[in-house]
Amino acid sequence: MFRQRLAGSSRCELWRAEQTALERDVLVTVFGPGAALGAIQALAQTKSPLIPEIIDIQRTAERTCVITEDPHARGIVGLLAGRRLDAGQISNLGMRLAEGFAELEASGVVYGGLCPT
76 — alpha (psi -120 to 50), left (phi > 0) or beta? Predict the structure, then answer.
């Protein structure tokens, strides 16, 4: 859910949004139809403390949305550390992790030696 428009130009907009499954803030950069997907995917593979981690890339015919960690919000590890989750939240998180690993496997990527099969 989009919460607050932070910046914008003729090429893209930056929004603060809620990742509802984990009840945390993320940043969403919305690009128009001419977005350079190759450059975005290359950036997604770059690991640097200077670049917020890309969580997801979603494309439609009208736009490309790049969802990144909010450097001013707590990361996923900090969010879950010491937090008591109910059975529904644990199940939902487990299902989403399994779906993510299945997508990685289907695309030929194995993450950290983990594989859903």
Answer: alpha
Residue 110 confidence (pLDDT) above 70: no
Pick the more confident residue, 20 or 3: 3
User: Token pair for residue 77?
Assistant: 């590890």
- Stated as kind and residue range, the H or E segment containing 94 is helix 87-106
Q: Which fold has domain 1-72?
A: Phosphorylase Kinase; domain 1 (3.30.200)
Secondary structure E strands in 44-116: 54-59, 64-69
CB distance 68 to 27 below 8 Å: yes
117 pLDDT more than 60: no
Cite the residue boundaries of each domain of the chain with CATH code 3.30.200.20: 1-72
